[in-house]
Amino acid sequence: MALGAVITALIQSSSGTTVIVVGLVNSGIMQLSQAIGIIMGANIGTTVTGQIIRLSDISGGGMLMEFLKPATFAPILAFVGAVLFVFIKSPRKRDIGQIFMGFGLLFIGMGMMTDSVSTLRESELFVRLFTTLQNPILGVLAGTLVTVAVQSSSASVGILQALSSTGLVTWGSAIPIILGQNIGTTSTSLIASIGTSKAAKRSAMVHVYFNIIGTVIFMAAIYGVKAAVGFSWWNDTMNMGDIANFHTLFNVVVTLLFLPFTKLLAKLAEMTIPDKPGEKQDIEIPVLDERLFNSPAVAIQQAKSAVETMARNARANYGEAVPVLYSHNTEVLNLIQQRESVIDKLEVNISNYLVKVTDRELNESESHAVNELINFIVEYERIGDYAINVVERSGEMFDKEITFSESARRELSLVDNAIKEIMDITLAAFQADDTVLAEQVEPLEETIDLMIDTLRERHILRLKNGVCAIESGIIFLEILTNLERISDHCSNIAARIVGKESEDDHFDGPRVSEYLLLAGRVKRRGGADMASMLPVWRRRQGRPVTICTFDVAPDKTGTEFPREEEANPAMGLCGVRYCLAHPDFFETQLRALLRAGLAGNLRILLPMVSTRDEFEHALDAVYRAKCALRERGVPFAETVPVGAFIETPAAALTAGDLARRAAFFNVGTNNLIQYTYAADRVNPQVRAYLPVASPAVYRLVRFAVEAAAEARIPLCLCGEGAAQPALAEAYARLGVRAFSLPARELLEVKEYLMGVTL
Fold first, then answer.
1. Cα pseudo-dihedral 629, 631, 637, 639, rounded to 10
2. How does DSSP classify residue 327?
3. pLDDT digits (tens, 9 = 90+) for 364-389
4. 739 backbone dihedrals φ, ψ, rounded to 5°
5. Could you give the residue ranges of the DSSP H alpha helices within 510-582?
6. Exposed, middle or buried, 617 (CB in 10 Å: 0-12/13-18/19+)?
7. Burial (0-12, 13-18, 19+ Cβ within 10 Å), 592
8. Conformation bin of residue 634: beta by default, left when phi > 0, alpha when psi is -120 to 50
9. What percent of the chain stands above pLDDT 70?
10. In 3D, which of 431, 308, 296, 309 has the Cα closest to residue 355?
11. How far is Cα 32 from Cα 579, in angstroms, rounded to an integer?
12. What b/e sequence results for 95-120 when a residue is b if at least 16 CB atoms lie within 10 Å of its CB, and e otherwise?
């Protein structure tokens, strides 16, 4: 309740708070019982606006009281907010600036309204209107309609406070209007609940019943007492302070009155929106409300709640996977399939939802949260698949009348209990974002690996000794493999929660750029995974994204990459040679890129290729990376084009051979010039020997262009070699149709080429 009051006081709208509550209930983040307290608190918080506006009615009291008047502090607040919003880069401080501006403009507007309505006291029509509103039914109806129109009880109360400056607003006319305003504010939550889940609709109905019943009780009490003893002040003028106080009194009293009856309110809402007879309630797919996109943090939390639903279903499926091997219970099997269907649908729904969230302006923390959630989605979907793999063995065993020996059953039971334990710990750590719990996962995963290795050896021995049949033995070993993979995925989830990469790099995402590593801005780790690439792919709109593998060259020095001292580093272990010499680095990145390829149109570029043999060895590494991922059951893009970076004369001269294996060419003129003229481009003493416009390099590029054309593969020219408009034209006439240029020259070259007729 206190939370609802504070939030509403800050955003100055109970309607806004209830809309958020409806969205949270709809997504499953919040239960109906929790929503009731926040709705009650929102009704108290909405009275703060009126209490602030009434400060303008205060007279005297010196400088302090003058400063507290909205007419004084509102312009200051708006100005400070504007400065923060316009001149401060921090997203959090800009948000605070918007809040200040909102408050300031609200109270400036109320002051202007108060000044403008003062002339209405001379209007005969206006006088008759407020006389008519002495009728309680008409007064409640008027307050309701005005609030429905402006979609805010705070605003409608402020309007009434402004009208009180005319001196025509009496207690008798104002009380019904104020009560009607509390009914009218429920319209916003009702509108917001359209198309939502039953729980969300029920939370909106709680708001409706709370205000309607409270209004009826309050009116009955006031008019009952008035009829019995009368009120001498009934026709007296009501000022801003009186309106604010009565509005606060009504909401506080009604809230205290309903506090003991929250369960009754929930029951009433459930009776209004009942469950249909025979409707299944055991498995539900959470609705991801796109209306929460305006609050990315809330939307992300909603997505996390949906991922938790995925995790719980995966855990429930596994919990029944081993027992069903022996029972083959069709009811249980159907329920497992329903849960698996929910997991698959949630994987698609949550991923699409998070991609849409990335279209919003996110801070660093929110972007990281989105990336991590997409990783968790993949992990839990795979856990669900492996649980299904185990369940499917049940049908095979039933059809073929296969049974396990007692010793096999005992051993499987031991591993089964361990898998349940690691899944429970992982789920609890994920739900609570608890690093202490997450740190317990890795030792347990290692223990499970040892157990499974031992059980495999024992089972193979049983097969040799004829204790188990061949068919049952194969199924037993398949089950062990699936359990091991579930354990691996639990380890991956825990590692992400802890914030460190798993010792097994099979599940790393793309490593961050070597430039960042070398600059010491980040620590060497798996880093961003394929999720970090999603915004890139969306901006590319289906066009290819080319990622070069590690290009550790003499001009890129640092301690993060193991390398030995070389007498002539420019001619040493560079580009693809370095990758082949360090397969741990190379294949980790390849696995990551293959996984990232699922998100969009990815191409892999191999740097500094000199010979076809080097390219073939790199392709072998790509194949090994695919096999590793396939063995682990990790999804990846099966067809990712691999291209060659033509940066040496040898590569250019043998481009015809390379073109038979490469999917595309990138020609790097910077290195091509360097190696053609045997002049290190990072050595200032020989920089003068590096001509950008070079006939020799031009001929080398021609070899590559002709080879690409003959093989019908795309070619792109990179570097300073085409940064001059005249050079770009020369290469374009040679047949180059794609250029990659430094940003500073891009526009000039583009404009020049657009005026060239080829």
1. 110
2. H
3. 778 888 888 888 998 899 899 999 98
4. -125, 145
5. 514-518, 534-540, 575-581
6. middle
7. buried
8. beta
9. 79
10. 296
11. 56
12. ebbebbbebbbbbbebbeebeebeeb
CB 278 within 8 A of CB 300: no
Place of tokens 């806004």: 16
Q: Which residue has the tokens 């693809």?
A: 576
Residues of the chain with pLDDT under 70: 1-16, 23, 26-29, 54-71, 73, 91, 107, 110-111, 113-133, 275-284, 287, 291, 499-543, 552-570, 681-682, 684, 687, 742-744, 747, 757-758
Find the DSSP H helices in 633-721.
649-653, 655-659, 669-676, 695-711
pLDDT of res. 614: 92
Half-sphere exposure (Cβ direction) of 203: Cα atoms closer than 13 Å: 34
Query: Mean pLDDT in the chain?
Result: 78
On whether the CB atoms of residues 129 and 121 are closer than 8 A, the answer is no
Q: 513 CB contacts (<8 Å, ≥6 apart)?
A: none
CA distance 742 to 170: 73
DSSP-assigned states of every residue in 372-434: HHHHHHHHHHHHHHHHHHHHHHHHHHHHHT----HHHHHHHHHHHHHHHHHHHHHHHHHHHT-
**Backbone CA torsion sign across 750, 738, 694, 721:** positive
Q: Give the helix ranges, DSSP H, for 499-559.
A: 514-518, 534-540
Domains in the chain, ordered, with CATH?
2-59+121-272 (no CATH), 295-503 (1.20.58.220), 530-754 (3.20.20.60)
Cα distances from 257 to residues 18, 209, 268, 414, 658, in angstroms, run 20, 13, 16, 55, 82
**What letter does residue 234 receive in the DSSP assignment?**
T
155's tokens: 């605003």
pTM value is 0.48
Q: Measuring CA to CA, which residue among 94, 7, 87 is closest to residue 43?
A: 7
